[in-house]
């Protein structure tokens, strides 16, 4: 493995095929929830991949039967108590979205089990997003007590329309992989046992395609996301203002109760 990725602790890397880099989110016993370390690594990795001449396509997945259970609640609680943590995480959340959008390499996500929070940002902003039929996609911001910022305001309305976005973002209703494909939230839905093979198949086609043509087609299409930049920046500010609001502690307590008996199981929510 290249020295470029040697310092990462919560992301694992391997090469399942020629010029295909597989990134695996790995937080054992926490259903790959994004703690402070993983959150920072999910920001940096797209810059490293963009600069890596050996990468023709990227796959991102979660270890085991979960994509990512969302933000680590210890990190969320620290954000409510420490201004430096709050502002650092706010900048990381912003950079994560822009680094994904601006990464020149095509990205394929393979989502199974819970797909929530910072992991879901990568899952839905991937160029080709693939979910297993039994995946459970949830934007949990309003359940926590903050506005649905991060990627939600920038990409959900573009993918599945304003009416569906409002329904799922306001109510925090889970979206199965099957339903996500039906409404256009993801590119493809597969049976669970076919998910990773399909993701590899798509990544192989991208890696074997014309690098210049694919890069600049991605760049042109992502201009729709760049045009939504002011909306994204304001939604993110509204989200992080909420961490000083009255509802977050109640939301934290509720989420802890929901997650506690379910860690190490297939579904945390």
UniProtKB/TrEMBL annotation:
It comes from the Bacteria. InterPro entries: ClpP/crotonase-like_dom_sf, Enoyl-CoA_hyd/isom_CS, Enoyl-CoA_hydra/iso, Enoyl-CoA_hydra_C. SUPFAM superfamilies: ClpP/crotonase (SSF52096). Pfam families: ECH_1. Belongs to the enoyl-CoA hydratase/isomerase family. PANTHER family: ENOYL-COA HYDRATASE, ENOYL-COA HYDRATASE ECHA15 (ENOYL HYDRASE) (UNSATURATED ACYL-COA HYDRATASE) (CROTONASE)-RELATED. This is Enoyl-CoA hydratase/isomerase family protein. It comes from Fodinicurvata halophila.
